[in-house]
Structure to design on (112 residues):
């Protein structure tokens, strides 16, 4: 890396179902990545956190790629009905999925 090159660490949290298409699509645009298993805090579902290092001028390519392959879905979460004498669960639709993406500037990058 040249000292004048701007480099980013893109951190993308995606649903486990989107892992294969997302990693293949990112590899197709020449992105190098690694991944970590993670879990969501709200629903506790399994996710994958992708760590992608790339030049800053390729960020929009990565965002477009993730937008194409990471889908939002409606899942149902059961909650007890308020005011019910018995704890009868009522399914509530919750929209999950897509990708949550952070782009962080990298001060130094070396491949050894």
């Amino acid at each position: 890396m040249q000292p004048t090159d701007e480099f980013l660490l893109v951190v993308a949290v995606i649903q486990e179902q989107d892992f294969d298409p997302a990693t293949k699509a990112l590899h197709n645009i020449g992105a190098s990545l690694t991944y970590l298993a993670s879990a969501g805090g709200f629903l506790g579902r399994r996710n994958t956190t992708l760590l992608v290092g790339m030049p800053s001028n390729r960020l929009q390519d990565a965002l477009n790629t993730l937008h194409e392959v990471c889908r939002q879905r409606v899942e149902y979460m059961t909650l007890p009905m308020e005011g019910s004498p018995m704890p009868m669960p009522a399914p509530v639709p919750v929209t999950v999925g897509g990708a949550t993406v952070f782009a962080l500037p990298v001060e130094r990058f070396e491949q050894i």
